Amino acid sequence: MRVFVTGASGWIGSAVVDELITTGHEVVGLARSEKSARSLDRKGVRVLRGDMEDLDVLRRGAAESDGVIHLANKHDWSDPVGSDRAERASVDALGGELAGSDRPLVVASVLSGFPGDRPVLETDPSPAVGPDSNRGGSENLALDYVRQGVRTVVSRFAPSVHGQGDWGFVKFLVDAARKQGCSGYLGEGTTTWSAVHRPDAARLLRLGLERAPAGTRMHVSAEEAVTTREIAEAIGRHLGIPVVRVAPEDAGAHFGFIGGFFARTMTASSELTRAALNWHPTGPTLVEDIEAGAYDLV
Question: Which of 158, 221, 240, 270 is deepest in the core (most CB within 10 A)?
């Protein structure tokens, strides 16, 4: 297949590109910068220059592909409304271009926003509906395109997609620990996150692109629930610093913006995903990656 990948040079996207090429697919990658374009070109990726707000470029990439994996997101924490608006518009552009083709559109989504009283299931619909909701309601918008002949596949990512060089949420926790001279957890440390090793995540996205039926919600989650205290203790052991309890009201001062996410339970079962796509994660756990120094050079 010729696969158009947005976010192709990002943390997850670059691993997905490698997975696709290794398994015989041709890749067209969206590149915002010259640096990203060069890195993709070295892999043998055909480059489309632009970003997720260049809707005509997105439509062109989709029109010339056999399928799309949409991973790009602005992640502008200073302008969440603008990020949500851009995410919705990009999904609408891609879905509109693929309408009537039965080609796959694999769309990244998140576990935040669900109630935290139990792990999220693949059968749980996203509570984010409409343009003013989280990520612009892009998950539900993408699923609406199933009725228009798009093989939409939603990929809900664990909050930690970890591995050597990870610059995601855990990187900010490590940075805060280094700055504070101690590794903190909030309250009793019983809040939990799901986690997945980066190559395992990339493999699942490729399987979803190839096999998943229209309307599938995949949970990109290998470990269902890692406590925030376990994460803090692993960071403390690796850095050789004390592990401390942080009062919830001090989350911002201790952790910065990541404190708000660290306070949320974001967990998901992937039982249905594994059975449907014969996905068997094999990578190290989040704690094992932290203790092996995955965040030393980030």
Answer: 221
